[in-house]
User: What shape does this take?
Amino acid sequence: MALLTDDTDTRKKDIAHQYDIPVQHLDTWKKHYLEGNWTALMNGTNPPCS
Assistant: This one.
């Protein structure tokens, strides 16, 4: 949800560091969220980087 209000590169890096995930995953997750692709978000695996 934090990316919906601030998706600057600095914020993405902070979030990725906090959750120990690649920054690219944040863009993929945000895309899935905005598209309403709940299956991709809830499948319990890291999404492929697009």
